[in-house]
Write a structure and sequence with these properties.
2 domains, Cathepsin B, Chain A, single chain, 17% strand, glycoprotein, ten-stranded mixed beta sheet, thiol protease, 368 residues, 9 helices
Length: 368
């Protein structure tokens, strides 16, 4: 009986210790995790919000014009820390926290760094043919095969649609010619005013947004795109069109939209090169890394254009204790965002509308 009592007391003591540890861990909450993202690892103590903001400014080179602006941004920064905590709970298989966008309100972020103008593909778009899917590899990444240019940065211009379009044509041109050429987004920003006749106000409009299928149509009609070095990116849309047809480096043969079936998307990716896609970017402002697989994310409100470059069969999600297949997306916010400029999002459930707006382009070999 004494032996039973001893073990009972030992078990109760052990459970109490676990409970205390859990409570202590919960009391720390996510603050320390968020702080460690913007200060060296050895500074693992909890810091006050002002020190935290100072570290953020130093890491990302942030400056403000006056005290009023500084104080306003500090308030926005604190609000975004709270928002990142919410995102972490809704999207536990990814890591959310402080990013270079942490001093922007959600509306500022949407206006400056998104720019997908339409919420659906045009009704008259050509449909990609159905491809065989029986022999798809478990993992594939066009970065490993030389078809993807380095990460670019659209700056505070809503030209994501142009970067998505250009990335797809760069990849297709590589498949056609064997040469990876960086093409001009600025040509699209300055010169592309193509409209979808089926919907009012759906014209490509530089930093004010556009649509990748519109941009493919413009490129087809114009004859092609220049190299980036010949028509460099400025991140402004007030400039006049400077397109020089004699400097075309890549041309469009045709383009089409891809079925929402994920095996068809993967098959088109392998056959045709990187694909232009639209996505709901609500979780991307606070994204740092991992496989994003939020519990709740609209599949219809697509507001950002990115480039699908590959997929993986197993991205470990420690919170949910299982492996998750994922898509690999090339973004246009510089290499100091996300996973060196890339975003991973889970496959299989059209999360954030990732399967809803997919298009592919075929290039023609040009003489230049």
């Amino acid at each position: 009986m004494e032996r039973v009592s001893f073990y009972s007391l030992f078990l109760l003591s052990l459970l109490s210790a676990v409970a205390v540890t859990t409570v202590f861990s919960d009391s720390i909450d996510d603050d320390e995790v968020l702080i460690r993202q913007v200060v060296p690892d050895e500074e693992n103590h909890l810091l006050n919000a002002e020190h935290h903001f100072t570290s953020f400014k130093a890491k990302f080179g942030k400056t403000y014009s006056n005290k009023e602006e500084h104080d306003y941004r500090f308030g926005v920064f604190k609000a975004n820390l709270r928002r990142a905590k919410k995102h972490q709970k809704l999207d536990p298989s990814a890591v959310h926290g402080v990013t270079k966008f942490s001093d922007l309100t959600p509306s500022e972020f949407r206006r400056q760094f998104l720019g997908l103008k339409r919420l659906r593909l045009p009704v008259d778009a050509h449909q990609a043919p159905v491809l065989p899917t029986s022999d798809l590899p478990a993992d594939f990444d066009w970065r490993d095969h030389g078809a993807v240019t380095p990460i670019k940065d659209q700056g505070s211009c809503g030209s994501c649609w142009a970067f998505s379009t250009v990335g797809a044509l760069e990849g297709s041109n590589f498949l056609e010619t064997g040469e990876l050429v960086s093409l001009s987004e600025q040509q699209l920003v300055d010169c592309d005013h193509e409209c979808d006749p089926e919907e009012y106000g759906s014209c490509d409009a530089g930093c004010n947004g556009g649509l990748m299928t519109n941009a493919f149509e413009y490129t087809l009609k114009a004859g092609g795109l220049e190299r980036e070095k010949d028509y460099p990116y400025t991140g402004r849309d007030a400039d006049t069109c400077k397109f020089d047809k004699s400097k075309i480096a890549a041309s469009v043969n045709n383009f089409s939209v891809v079925s929402t079936d994920e095996d068809q998307i993967a098959a088109n990716l392998l056959k045709n090169g990187p694909l232009s896609i639209g996505i709901n970017a609500v979780f991307m402002q606070t994204y740092i890394g991992g496989v994003s697989c939020p519990y709740v994310c609209s599949k219809r409100l697509l507001d950002h254009g990115v480039l699908l470059v590959g997929y993986g069969s197993a991205g470990y999600a420690p919170i949910r204790f299982k492996e998750k297949p994922f898509w690999i997306l090339k973004n246009s916010w510089g290499a100091n965002w996300g996973e060196n400029g890339y975003y991973k999002i889970c496959r299989g459930r059209n999360v954030c509308g990732v399967d809803a707006m997919v298009s592919t382009v075929s290039a023609i070999h040009t003489s230049r």
